[in-house]
Design goal:
Immunoglobulin-like; CBM2_carb-bd_dom_sf; hydrolase activity, hydrolyzing O-glycosyl compounds; carbohydrate metabolism; polysaccharide binding; about 35% helix; SGNH_hydro; six-stranded parallel beta sheet
């Protein structure tokens, strides 16, 4: 995570000499400069596939454009390192070549990456491989929703920039060009229903003005001209967020509340019962020592058995599951889970339950 603090270190000998010369005369360094150097960098995760990470040199262009505009307190973050673009920049990223956003959602891959990097802003161009694989827009957008939910579990104040994908016209996929058009048309409506005042989702049009014949080297991946265009589209949206400021990000000492979320997923069902699992995630900026989940099964079902937790059941059928001890302590962004078996009336519909989570402080 090369951040601009490395650049500032080179200026310290000169600043020290100036201070030595001027301080006896009653002249000090400007308070704004001191405050800027002490500011906590805003952590920005570039998220996507090979267009973002292999090598994804638009990130280098964007990084330097942000620095030139005065946005020096930034840190690009990700579990993947720089892959070489011939330009000095912070190369950390989350652009995994060949990945499908639907697989990342289905396999629950993002939470660990978020926990390792703790971004304040996510810049996402994701879905090209899904479109190429003829996965439906509905399924891709459902994966987007799952990823946004996980981002907000990591940081409730997450700012999210989502791209309308650059055009695609590979020789092996004649239908891909129109599939991108069809998918991009759905993104603004999805974003409008997903965005919140606390965690806004902003759509960035990467499609308009991008030409696969001049801006890619293979009909899919950007060349140098394409990198410039992608960076130019990201820049105003990202700069606007940086100028606005990012409140309540991970590690914000003003956010002392301990919070967690619980999510319910049916595993299998049969006449008279079902099996499900519940995932608990620490959504606060501090560790928690333990958790407690209430489970209210729908349609008269009752929780009969749990594992990886301790069960108590109220007269109305509401179940309370506390951690098993060994899985109670969770670092910020970390998760644990438990499984359950429920019995259902003969007329019960598909398995469903309302779940809620409460966290306890780490001692």
């Amino acid at each position: 995570m090369r951040d601009t603090r490395l650049r500032r270190l080179r200026t310290l000998p000169l600043l020290g000499l100036l201070a030595a010369l001027f301080l006896p005369l009653g002249v000090g360094l400007a308070p704004s400069a001191a405050a800027s150097s002490a500011a906590t960098p805003v952590r920005i995760m570039p998220l996507g596939d090979s267009i973002t990470g292999s090598p994804g040199c638009w990130r280098a262009v964007l990084w330097n454009r942000l620095l030139e505009a005065g946005h020096t307190d930034i840190d690009f973050v990700g579990t993947l390192p720089e892959q070489g673009c011939g330009v000095e920049h912070d190369g950390d990223n989350e652009g995994h070549g060949g990945e499908l956003v639907t697989n990342v959602a289905d396999q629950d891959l993002l939470p660990a990456r978020l926990a390792a990097t703790r971004p304040d802003i996510v810049v996402m161009h994701f879905g090209t491989n899904d479109v190429w694989s003829s996965i439906s827009p509905d399924r891709i957008l459902a994966a987007y929703t799952e990823l946004v939910t996980q981002m907000r579990a990591s940081n409730p104040d997450m700012r999210i920039l989502v791209a309308q994908l650059i055009p695609m016209n590979p020789g092996s996929c004649a239908a891909c060009a129109q599939r991108v058009v069809d998918f991009n048309a759905r993104i603004p409506g999805w974003a409008a229903t997903t965005s919140t005042s606390r965690s806004p989702v902003t759509v960035v049009d990467q499609w308009t003005g991008f030409d696969t014949s001049t801006d890619t080297y293979d009909g899919v991946h950007p060349n140098a001209a394409g990198d410039e265009k992608i960076a130019a589209r990201w820049f105003p949206a990202l700069a606007a967020l940086l100028e606005e400021g990012v409140p309540g990000g991970p590690g914000d000492p003003g956010d002392g509340d301990l919070t967690c979320t619980a999510s319910f997923r049916a595993v299998s069902a049969w006449q008279g019962g079902y099996q499900a699992e519940v995932t608990v995630r620490n959504t606060s900026a501090a560790p928690v020592e333990g958790w407690r989940v209430t489970v209210e099964p729908a349609d008269g079902a009752r929780v009969a058995q749990v594992w990886n937790g301790t069960l108590t059941t109220a007269a109305d059928g509401t179940a309370t599951v506390t951690d098993a001890g060994w899985n109670g302590a969770l670092a910020p962004g970390a998760s644990a889970g438990f499984g359950l078996i429920a019995t259902t009336p003969a007329t019960s519909s598909a398995p469903a339950a309302t779940v809620d989570c409460a966290a306890t402080a780490s001692s």
